[in-house]
Sequence to fold (204 residues):
Amino acid sequence: MRSKSPELMEKIWNFVGEYYRHNYISPTIRIIAEEMGISKSTAHGYLVEMDEKGMLSYRNGVLDDLPKINKTPTGIVSAPLVGSISCGNPETEEEQVEMYVGLPEVLIGKGEYYLLKAAGDSMEDAGIEEGDLIVIRSQKTAAVGDIVVALDDTNQNTLKKFTGFDEEHHAILAYMNEKKYPGKTIRVNHLAVQGVAKKVLKDL
Fold:
């Protein structure tokens, strides 16, 4: 395995910190690669090694926790936009970070967040329409009444309202569009929550 250049590591570290300081979000691998004049796979390899060396935090495609970030104005949460989520029948979506978005902590609270783009019409009664950006808090538990990102029994993901359990203790995920899907639900043997919807960002 070829050793990584300490000089390029420092250059990447400086660039990411400055980028965050000016934009309040972390750059994507594509932006880093273009700035450094390297391939995305090479940039990924450098970020992985920099994470191992404690220079920054790079986990599951999310880049954060830089010393220079701590010098920026507080109260901004960097949330990755990781693709779309079905608001209809469950479907598999490959998670891929498209960009990072700076969100004010005063509006969403503290925690780990990510953004998903709504696809489908099953959550319209909850104010979620196709194309809306949904702010998701990363967590594995949910309360009855929460709108959740969850997996069905075939490990396909969907966005639905968790309404409790039936007599056989199946978790009930409800559609929120009574006009088009009256009384329709999905019932799963095990409620596998990937996050809970907290805010919806949309055009007026």
